[in-house]
UniProtKB/TrEMBL annotation:
Binding site for FMN: A67, G68, F69, D70, K71, T91, N152, N185, K227, T255, G281, G310, Y331, S332
Subunit description: Monomer.
Keywords: Cell membrane, Flavoprotein, FMN, Membrane, Oxidoreductase, Pyrimidine biosynthesis
Lineage: Bacteria, Bacillati, Actinomycetota, Actinomycetes, Kitasatosporales
UniProt family annotation: Belongs to the dihydroorotate dehydrogenase family. Type 2 subfamily.
UniProt xrefs under CDD domains: DHOD_2_like
Species: Streptomyces smaragdinus
Catalytic activity: (S)-dihydroorotate + a quinone = orotate + a quinol
Main EC class the enzyme belongs to: oxidoreductase
Keyword Transport set for record: no
Name recorded for this polypeptide: Dihydroorotate dehydrogenase (quinone)
Cofactor: FMN
EC code(s) of this entry: 1.3.5.2
Domain of life: Bacteria
Length: 375
């Protein structure tokens, strides 16, 4: 059904409009109590074997929706209804901003990929915090009242790089109380200069300030993660891994989109005509996996790794777990696979785990990378 809908409707529409139409439909369904339960029963059956504990949280499974889909925290319950085990909202910046000029999202259907230069279009951290507060107080049972919500923060475009820390701190102070975990995003290619914040001498004070701001704001200790780009050199990945250990960070998310256009099947002239932006989806798979392996080899089980980038199938998700990811996320394949995608991932993962020598997902985390390093 979805492939037909994609071919006949979504594919003919501007990708950003298609996103809003699909997201509005999900939100509308979630607002109808009867429909919500029905969709949930079909899309998100429970898989007790896939339960995981990560970042001090109990999750129904390891598979979350990556940042960027629900930038403003308007559809968390609808997305949980479809079976995502956690939803990372954002990127949210201290000030509301419109993002880059449209058109800014493109499909490379033949590559099962997307190119985006959205540029952190979002309502700003004050509005998003107010929305999260209302949701928390108004949450109705039954139905996953306790969906794990990650909050991903970034820098306001007009704020100079030298003042980036204050911008992140403002968002942290507003949002930490509503975050099950907090992500410092320094890896989007669409905010000029943002990725320079990945250099450890800049990242150290930034992460330290965010940690302190979170601790000032809430008595509960909010897990703090950093999200990195796949375009970092190997030494820089190691440096971020070492910094994460040094600062007692809770996790690293690998990876964001890439600025590379290597290995695409789509006509290079067409790709070039789309202009700048981050590439996501299938072509990102190999590099994201490499970055994850490298991180796991460095940090082992000391911090939580979240694998994201090009995950399309349960096999892809399982490969990330074996490489070292306790949690996995996806975005682009949701566009191509549709609303039953989380269900297929869970079903497949459950079968793969059952057929493996591991009793739990936790036992499987990093098994392949450990083997590669001991043999
Ligand atoms: C349209 C679009 C918008 C995105 N916006 C954000 C964002 O605001 N913050 C962020 O950290 N990542 C953002 N991402 C990156 C995704 O979270 C993810 O890291 C990346 O797409 C790789 O995963 P995928 O191959 O499964 O899509 C965005 C991705 C897409 C396709």
């Amino acid at each position: 059904m979805y492939p037909l809908l994609f071919k006949t409707v979504f594919r003919r529409m501007d990708p950003e409009r298609a996103h809003h139409l699909a997201f509005d439909t999900i939100r509308a369904a979630a607002a109808v109590p009867g429909a919500r339960g029905g969709v949930r029963a079909v899309a998100a059956p429970a898989y007790p074997r896939l339960r995981v504990r990560a970042l001090g949280l109990d999750l129904p499974g390891p598979f979350g929706l990556a940042a960027g889909f629900d930038k403003n925290a308007v559809g968390i319950d609808g997305l949980a209804m479809l079976g995502f085990d956690f939803v990372e909202i954002g990127t949210v910046t201290a000030r509301a901003q419109p993002g880059n000029e449209k058109t800014r999202l493109f499909r490379l259907t033949g590559d099962r990929a997307l190119v985006n230069r959205m540029g952190f279009n979002n309502d700003g951290s004050a509005a998003v915090a107010a929305r999260l507060a209302r949701r928390r107080h108004g949450q109705r049972r039954p139905y996953r009242p306790d969906t794990v919500v990650g909050v991903n923060i970034g820098k306001t475009k007009t704020v100079p790089e030298a003042e980036a820390t204050a911008d992140y701190v403002t968002s942290t102070e507003r949002l930490a109380a509503y975050a099950d975990y907090l992500v410092v995003n320094v890896s989007s290619p669409n905010t000029p200069g943002l990725r320079n914040l990945q250099a450890v001498e800049v990242l150290r004070p930034l992460l330290t300030a965010v940690r302190e701001a979170a601790d000032r704001t809430t008595t509960a200790r909010v897990p703090l993660l950093v999200k990195i780009a796949p375009d970092l050199a190997d030494e820089d990945i190691d440096a971020v891994a070492d910094l994460a250990l040094e600062l007692g960070l809770d996790g690293v998310i690998a990876t964001n989109t890439t600025v590379s256009r290597d290995g695409l099947r789509t006509d290079p002239a067409h790709v070039a005509s789309l202009g700048a932006g981050g590439l996501s989806g299938a072509p990102l798979k190999e590099r994201s996996l490499q970055v994850l392996r490298r991180l796991y080899a460095r940090v082992g089980d000391r911090i939580t790794l979240v694998g994201v980038g090009g995950i399309e199938t349960a096999e892809d998700a399982w490969e990330r777990v074996l490489a070292g990811a306790t949690l996995v996320q996806g975005y682009s394949a949701f566009v191509y696979e549709g609303p039953l995608w989380p269900r297929r991932i869970h079903h497949g993962l459950d079968r793969l785990l059952a057929a493996s020598p591991y009793a739990t997902l936790a036992d499987a985390v990093g098994a392949d990378t450990r083997k590669a390093h001991t043999s």
